[in-house]
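re: ur question from yesterday

yeah so i grabbed the chain u mentioned. its 221 aa long if i counted rite. heres the sequnce exactly as i have it in my notes:
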Amino acid sequence: MLKRFRLYFVLLLSLTIMTGCFSSSPEEKIHKILEKTTEKESDFTEHQEPLNKLENKEKEQYDKIIKLGMNEYEQIVELSDEATKNIDEREAIIEKEHNSMQASKKQFNKIEEQIGKIEDKKVKKEATEMNKIMSERYSTYDNLYEAYQQSLKYDRELYELFKKEDLKMDELQGQIKKINTSYTKVLKTNRQFNELTEKSNQKKESFYNSSGIEMADSTKK
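ran it thru and got these structure tokens back, copy pasting raw so excuse formatting
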């Protein structure tokens, strides 16, 4: 009987130790969530270079069309079709980028529950401020996505106009004005997003410092 009691005691002690190993503090759980949000955004970072290349290529196609006269209509149509394909490619990249950010946002939303469990007031304050800035960043990206999609729509309309043999100058100027206004909004929103990304990284670092958790390199992006 005594041996059996000792066996039960050893098993109970082992289970207690194992439970302690698997339990994590709210700060550690937040750290893991942040690492996963960074992983989800990896595709977003990878898409920036090909997107920039396509944008530069489309500008070259536009410049070529503007220099051509209507007696070179067939070449204008050919270039317009190429530019439209360029838009299709950019739309595909933007969708992948958007999906990546939405997956990151979904992961990030798990943080709020953990913040409420933090006992240290200073750490809780840092986590709350980080949550606010990062939430604003995701919201700004949503605005950026919508603005960019609208700009692509106007671009597509422009290249359809170029294919009109009876295109009027005021019609062309009106479309270009819409595009310029749209891209001004894109640039402004993109600037806000970049600023919030920098602030988010700073807030992450402040949270890690206050909680005593070492900031992984992967979260500094």
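noticed a couple things. The CA atoms of residues 6 and 12 lie 10 Å apart. also The radius of gyration is 26 Å.
anyway ttyl
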